[in-house]
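Problem 3 from the worked examples.
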Amino acid sequence: MQDLGRDMIAMIDQKMTRLELLKKEVKVLPVRQFKTIFSRIDDNPKLSMELYLNHLDDPRVVMSISPSIRGTGWELLRLGDNFMVDFRALEGRDEIRFIHGNGFVAKTHDMIPMDEVVALASAGHQSCGLGCLISAMNQ
């Protein structure tokens, strides 16, 4: 039981340390009318990301870009199941090595420059008119 308690305290400490690092190093970048968070942290890149998003408290943050834990490229991830982000739009792009079937995640082959991966993220953002919004609300 003591080991479990020590492990829990260590995990909390690790998450809080990472949260402070995220606050210092993550960039919040515009992607059309929304935002993405961009992180170069490659050691367990998603650690404390939920805490950082809560810290930001910005509903316009709809995706994240971070190093992939499976491969050498970037991972583009839809946040909060936002229907405006669908990475299936990146199908056929040379930079892309994987897109999940429902479009919530895409991965690049390599760590391409920040401006290029943000441009890909922008291409994965849906332009949505009133009809699209009504359709999404009825799902």
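Problem 4, a separate protein:
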Amino acid sequence: MNLYRFISLNGTRSRNKQRGLVAIFVTAAFLFFLGIAAFTVDVNHAYMNKSKLQNSVDAAALAGAYYAANDKSESDINGIIITTIEQAEGFAGNSELSSLSDYVVIRYDSDSEGDFSGTTKPASDDIYVRVSISHYPLNNYFASIFGVDKYISASAVAGPSSDITGVCNIVPLMVCAAGPDTETTVGGYVPGQVYSIKGPDDTIGDNSYKLSDIAGANANDINDAMASGYDQCVDIKPGTLLGDKSGVTSSVGNSINSRFGEDVRQGEYKDLVKYPPDTCITEPDNLACYVESDDDTNTCIASNKVKQANDPILYFDKENEFDHTEYKNCSVNNSGSEFAVSGRRVLHVPIVDCDSMVGDEAPIVTFGCFYLVQHVGENGLGQTFVGQFIKECPITNGTFDDLNGNEGPFRIVLYKDPLSEDS
């Protein structure tokens, strides 16, 4: 045999063999990277829907916690959670998230870091709500090739924040403290009791309010802010000074009454769009009155009203009152306006030390909330408003200090879920 021919033939076979191995490696690499690409499609798909699911349970937990803070029933809380989840299903891009309510689990606790084992609303001032959806199935694109099914989960915990140290959207009033803070009072006011808070031009009663300068010194600005809420924020730390502008305006009653129905509104405050009423405008059948003389006393007593121990000039019909508890349970919009806004009858106000004024400025003592029992101006009350003091009240915006207590205004916020690593 020719040696050259043998070597030549052997070299040809070797190259053909190498070409076969390269083809195998290239095919294997192509399939590997194709698998990675396919798997990435499913991973991104799952991550995208996981984000949408998290947004849905966040919104549901916040809605549930808001209802809980407003003392709604357990069925109402659970109902708003389910409704929020179902509304999220209809949002653009959420077509794959259907029938989520079948997977919803609702739990309660009185501690944001609790075990959330409770299935019923706790008897506590602070109620935290946990909403979770677990093992929700998603459609597979390529993951099934690898024998993998796709499931996503999400959870959220929401509840009241600690005390607010800066509040937005408040009215330009500052209420004079009725006494020191105690274990049972805030700024001297007893939670749950009804007070007559007299205006700058009124002479009745011991409790009073002044107009503050947070909205400026112009009468129109103050009146407008009184009616619609001041849209900036105020530092409410104790000692902060607020200026008194009580002499620039006398339209407090008209401004405050914009929170009620059309029959008690006057002038520009009849604008239901700019000055929306509360969704609940129900008032007591027998409105409060005050006394200046024995004749006034007889008139008040004849109308089945009795003197309030905490407010010697206010006569109030406790048997036919429409108090804050009833107001919170008023779930139907009875204002007759599509522009109505819930919560308008709750005034968030600084409580100041009027006895320690420095010039025209008074130092803030604390912050409080009054529920407007009735509109201003009835039964000779002038600019005096009749309000039930509320110990705790949610606000729409503000800043808070984690070291503060749990009295006064607060926000509904999301907390890290102690039962989840990725909340």
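Solution to problem 4. Helices lie at 3-69, 74-89, 219-228, 252-256, 294-302, 324-328. The chain has two domains: 10-162, 164-400.
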